């Protein structure tokens, strides 16, 4: 089963939501104050309260979960052998790009070469799959 253009677009959006929010979640969680409570139940509740009342953490978390929901919905109609490489590989690329924008050290020339090769490989997978579906009705 080949993927339609809409399905591929949905998977790229999943990768952008997953990968784009990872550096934001990392940054927000590094700024949190440690919580210390006497029992593990109170500790858990206090940590949840701290996280969910912090909009710097909550907004990227919500977007990340939207990506997971979209992935789940897209898997119902997309070939698994295409969905997993697109979403997982491109999420790494999006993580590196957003991390670089936020000022993180993402590596040197080898990292950039890896991003280019990953993107080229995924482009070949997408092109091959979309070409198979031309002339067939879209399921997404």
Shape: flat
The major pleated sheet works out as: none
- Overall pLDDT metric: 87
Radius of gyration (Å): 19 Å
Distance between the termini: 13 Å
Q: If helices are DSSP runs of H or I spanning 4 or more residues, what is the number of helices?
A: 5
Give me the strand/helix succession: HHHHH
Unreliable spans are: none
Quantity of strands, as a count: 0
The helix-and-strand class reads mainly alpha
Helical residue percent band:
over 70%
Strand content bin? under 5%
Describe what this molecule looks like in 3D.
Helices cover 76% and strands 0% of the residues. The protein has 140 residues and is mostly helical. Helix 1 (5-30) runs antiparallel to helix 3, helix 1 (5-30) packs across helix 4 and helix 4 runs antiparallel to helix 5. The two termini are 13 Å apart.
Give short descriptive properties of this protein.
mainly alpha; flat; 5 helices; 140 residues; 76% helix
Short description:
The chain has 140 residues and is mainly alpha-helical. The protein contains 5 helices and no strands. The relative contact order is 0.21.
């Amino acid at each position: 089963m080949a993927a339609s253009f809409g399905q591929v677009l949905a998977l790229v959006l999943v990768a952008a939501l997953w990968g784009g929010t990872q550096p934001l979640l990392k940054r927000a969680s590094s700024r949190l104050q440690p919580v210390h409570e006497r029992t593990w139940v109170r500790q858990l509740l206090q940590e949840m309260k701290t996280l969910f009342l912090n909009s710097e953490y909550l907004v990227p978390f919500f977007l990340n979960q939207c990506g997971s929901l979209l992935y789940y919905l897209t898997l119902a109609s997309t070939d698994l052998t295409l969905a997993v490489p697109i979403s997982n590989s491109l999420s790494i690329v999006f993580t590196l790009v957003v991390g670089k924008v936020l000022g993180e050290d993402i590596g040197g020339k080898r990292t950039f070469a890896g991003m280019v090769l990953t993107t080229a490989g995924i482009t070949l997978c997408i092109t091959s799959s979309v070409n198979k579906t031309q002339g067939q009705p879209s399921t997404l």
